[in-house]
Amino acid sequence: MAQQQHDQHQHHEGPEGYGSDAEFWDARYRQSDRIWSGNPNGVLVREVEGLPAGRALDLGCGEGADAVWLARRGWQVTGTDISAVALERAAGHAAEAGVADRISFERHDLGASFPTGEYDLVSACFLHSPGDMPRERILRAAAAAVAPGGVLLVAGHGGTAPGHENPHPELHFPTPQEVLADLELPEDGWEVLVCAEHPRTEAEASRPGPGFDNTLKVRRRG
Ligand SMILES: C[S@@+](CC[C@H](N)C(=O)[O-])C[C@H]1O[C@@H](n2cnc3c(N)ncnc32)[C@H](O)[C@@H]1O
Prior knowledge:
Elements: H1 2-7, H2 21-30, H3 42-48, E1 55-59, H4 65-72, E2 76-81, H5 84-96, E3 103-107, E4 119-125, H6 135-144, E5 146-160, H7 176-183, E6 190-199, E7 211-220
The structure holds S-adenosylmethionine.
S-adenosylmethionine (SAM) binds at residues 21, 25, 36, 41, 60-62, 81-83, 86, 108-111, 125-129, 133.
């Protein structure tokens, strides 16, 4: 079903100067051997630690740190990203960590195609892009991929701290309440576990500017 929703919108423009989002992200990843820290996102660790391992889908998995952390904890993970460069790197990190057999990597422009299957955890950590990625629609497809009893975790950048320049004025960083509203979840089918904004941690200092991040964690009723 998610696949059909996405087929209507096959092509997405990349940010200025790039033909597509894939080109932009491949170029971004090629800028250095590793653009992220290699550590899992703090929000993922915090919110997933207490969940029983099952099937997980990591949307915009980048260099694979979250996927590797999940696999180490016994999850069977599908990691997906638009960037072939990132995915190759992520597969290397999974192999180094000895968890390659518990992660499969799939390349998707999530605005155009979506992994099949249903998952006990769907995680979208900092799935932001300077192109015209249809984030709200992707997150609705993410919710549709959550199995009964499963969890959708969306972590995102929020506002810039007062007195600091917003380094990405072209991007709208929604509040967790906006993310929740955009998901259009039927109230009786889902339980909201976390819907909160919090100051960005030091570990995430490579993120755009001082400010706030937010977390939305919802569980599909079983
Ligand atoms: C800000 S990075 C976050 C990476 C990782 N989740 C993390 O938290 O470190 C956004 C990621 O989303 C990926 N991405 C951007 N647009 C995408 C799209 N349309 N489909 C799939 N992945 C996309 C990028 O390649 C990049 O790896």
